[in-house]
Amino acid sequence: MHVALEAAGKLQAQQISAEVIDPRSLAPLDTPAILKSVAKTGRLIIVDEDYPSCGMASEIAAVVSADAFYSLQHPVERITPPASPAPFSPVMERYYIPDAERVVECATRMMKRHSAAVR
Fold this sequence. Notes:
Helix 3 (56-67) links the parallel strand 1 (45-47) and strand 2. By secondary structure, this protein is mainly alpha-helical. It has helices at residues 2-13, 31-41, 56-67, 90-96, 100-118; strands at residues 45-47, 77-79. The chain has five helices and two strands. It has one domain (2-111): Rossmann fold (3-Layer(aba) Sandwich), CATH 3.40.50.920. It has a two-stranded parallel sheet with strand order 1-2.
């Protein structure tokens, strides 16, 4: 959550508004809040410290793909660690765990792609 809020602040400085949702649990998943946000923004970036497959990020992506596909203006993006064992080195851990910079880069890329398509 801290990463997403930090990224939202940095995006705001770039005139990009970001809505942050903290679902807290997979069961029950706050599907209505997620779908409402996707309908409003047309985009979804999921930030999760778990593996990219078989976790919360992939479940949320599946729900949105099934229930809000036509609201999406860009494919769903997942920012997760790589599908590899976690490193033990603190230096390597910084590259492994998602950070605000990766979220900002992803959101900026999403918005550039959208603005180029609108022209």
